[in-house]
Design a protein that fits this description.
mainly alpha
Length: about 150
């Protein structure tokens, strides 16, 4: 259990350092990357390298990793099983993109950014947590668990 926690801590720190070095903790940098309206001005393509690197590593490593019977630090892989697009996925992706564009944060960098104490980061994370709680309440109201 200690090894798993130490590995999780080390990987989390590595992730945080990578996000910090890439500029993902700077909402304006993210918004400048997402704003194609000013390609010759403020548009900042540097995050495309970050995204491209992540996609390349994923494409190369996932086939190798998924050949294992189980993850190194877990008992089973948690991979999506949905094979088609549905309205929940499309609406969720749209809300994610809108939130990312307006706020300049996505969940990972926002959580890492909490250590800065930035007011905008705190507001974003609070709104994100409120949205997650509202989704849970909505989900539970639509599909109540049967109690035996």
């Amino acid at each position: 259990m200690i090894k798993k926690r130490m590995a999780s801590l080390a990987l989390g720190l590595l992730f945080g350092v990578g996000l910090t070095m890439s500029g993902m903790l700077q909402p304006q940098k993210v918004q400048d990357f997402l704003d194609f309206s000013d390609i010759k001005g403020r548009w900042d393509p540097s995050l495309a390298l970050v995204m491209g690197g992540a996609v390349l590593i994923t494409l190369l490593s996932f086939p190798i990793i998924l050949r294992r019977s189980h993850p190194v630090l877990g008992t089973k892989f948690h991979v999506p099983t949905l094979k088609h697009l549905d309205s929940k996925l499309a609406i969720g992706a749209a809300l994610f993109g809108i939130g990312w564009g307006l706020g300049g944060f996505c969940p990972g960098p926002a959580l890492v950014g909490l250590v800065t104490g930035s007011r905008s980061t705190l507001v974003f994370v609070a709104a994100m947590l409120a949205g997650m709680a509202l989704h849970r309440v909505y989900h539970d109201l639509r599909q109540p668990q049967s109690h035996s």
